[in-house]
Write a structure and sequence with these properties.
Number of domains: 2
Number of strands: 10
Shape: globular
Helix content: 25-40%
Number of helices: 10
CATH topology of the largest domain: Nucleotidyltransferase, domain 5
Low-confidence stretches: 350-360
Bound molecules: 5'-O-[(R)-(carboxyoxy)(hydroxy)phosphoryl]adenosine, zinc ion
Mean pLDDT: 94
Radius of gyration: 20 Å
CATH class of the largest domain: Alpha Beta
Strand order of the largest sheet: 3-2-1-4-5
Length: 360
């Protein structure tokens, strides 16, 4: 089954074609992402109305480009998957409207996909994919969550952030040190400078929030205040900025690693899956690789470009569910808020309109 995937939940327009007849990475026939970063940069964050309008401009050309790269036409598409939520409602509506109309015109099924399920399943697009049960860490700009994945579609929340998401903490911390939006990758690049002369990687040590008490929840909002105070009291030189960035990155990475190890212990599993934008962070990848290897397990990440928002993860997650017989009715679905634990399991997925796929 060849599924066209469409992602427009925030500031990236993503389109891809996934073919279930070809497993793993080979199934990804083509994918393209158009990032709106330059558009929003001067405002220091995403402006929802501008995001929606840019999706309107970019989505159809991107669909044509992706189909051409796959050597396909719309007539070859057997189903359409789109991000139905969570996200910015205006941005979601653009993708949902186009996807639903296209499916109706082609007389093929359509399915609204949960954005975070897309992220969570992205590591399975790679070769040698992990099979449930496993533990999943979702670390994006809006979410920091640990799930016990009992089966595809059966997600038990183990812990989540009580305030800022990990990506949000990266972005806010970068902003207060004067780095441009989106700060996460910029802050990580700056932290890497600390390893090189004349930086001092160990010069700043920030707390690892909520690691000294039991539980799998996170809290990252206090960390940016610690960084702000350190930055204010410093000489604000380039070298100090790199050292503080490094101290912050180490604190987030270490906190995530401690909780992931705890989650593996709680779930009595040894396979960890990591997804979402912060999963592209090199130091996090290395630290989790070392932690799982020491336990005799493994960690699976998507390739870095499939960590951040993309159409491939939506095409893939949608393809799994469509191939299992799940379909939506003719509704255009856009859910700004939507709990992933309310999704139906893959095996029991209904034939008509996503049972359990309701806004919570
Ligand atoms: O998953 P994503 O593309 O969008 C959401 O669904 O939120 O995640 C974006 C987040 C942003 O906060 C961004 O700063 C962060 O992921 N991010 C990173 C890195 N690359 C992206 N954070 C730390 N290190 C990175 N290399
Ligand atoms: Zn995302």
């Amino acid at each position: 089954m060849r599924v066209l995937g469409i992602e427009t939940s925030c500031d990236e327009t993503g389109v891809a074609v996934y073919d279930t007849a070809l497993a793993g990475a080979a199934g990804l026939r083509a994918q393209a992402v158009y990032s709106q970063i330059a558009l929003h940069a001067e405002y220091g964050g995403v402006v929802p109305e501008l995001a929606s309008r840019d999706h309107v401009r970019k989505l159809l050309p991107l669909i044509r480009q992706t189909l051409a790269e796959a050597g396909l036409t719309v007539a070859d598409i057997d189903g359409v998957a789109y991000t139905a939520g969570p996200g910015l409602v205006g941005a979601l509506l653009v993708g949902a409207g186009v996807a639903r109309s296209l499916a109706w015109a082609l007389d093929v099924p359509a399915l609204g996909v949960h954005h975070m399920e897309g992220h969570l399943l992205a590591p399975l697009i790679e070769d040698d994919p992990p099979e449930p049960p496993f533990v999943a860490l979702l670390v994006s700009g809006g979410h920091t969550q640990l799930f016990a994945v009992e089966a595809i579609g059966r997600y038990r929340l183990l812990g989540e952030t009580l305030d800022d998401a990990a990506g949000e903490a990266f972005d806010k911390t970068a902003k207060l040190m004067g780095l441009p939006y989106p700060g996460g990758p910029q802050l990580a690049a700056l932290a890497a400078q600390s390893d090189k002369e004349p930086g001092q990687p160990g010069a700043y040590r920030f707390p690892r929030p909520m690691t000294n008490r039991p539980g799998l929840d996170f809290s990252f909002s206090g960390l940016k205040t610690q960084v702000l105070l350190a930055w204010r009291d410093s000489d604000q030189s380039e070298r100090t900025r790199a050292d503080i960035a490094r101290g912050f990155e180490d604190a987030v990475v270490e906190t995530l690693a401690v909780k992931c190890e705890r989650a593996l212990e709680a779930a009595a599993g040894e396979v960890l899956v990591v997804a979402g934008g912060v999963g592209a962070n090199r130091r996090l990848r290395a630290r989790l690789q070392a932690m799982t290897a020491a336990r005799g397990g493994r960690v699976c990440f998507p390739r870095p470009e499939l960590c951040t928002d993309n159409g491939a993860m939506i095409a893939f997650a949608g393809a799994l569910r469509l191939a299992a017989g799940q379909r939506d009715d003719a509704t255009v679905r856009a859910l700004p808020r939507w709990e992933m634990a309310s999704l139906p399991p893959l095996a029991a997925a209904g034939r008509e309109s996503g049972m359990g796929n309701r806004e919570s």
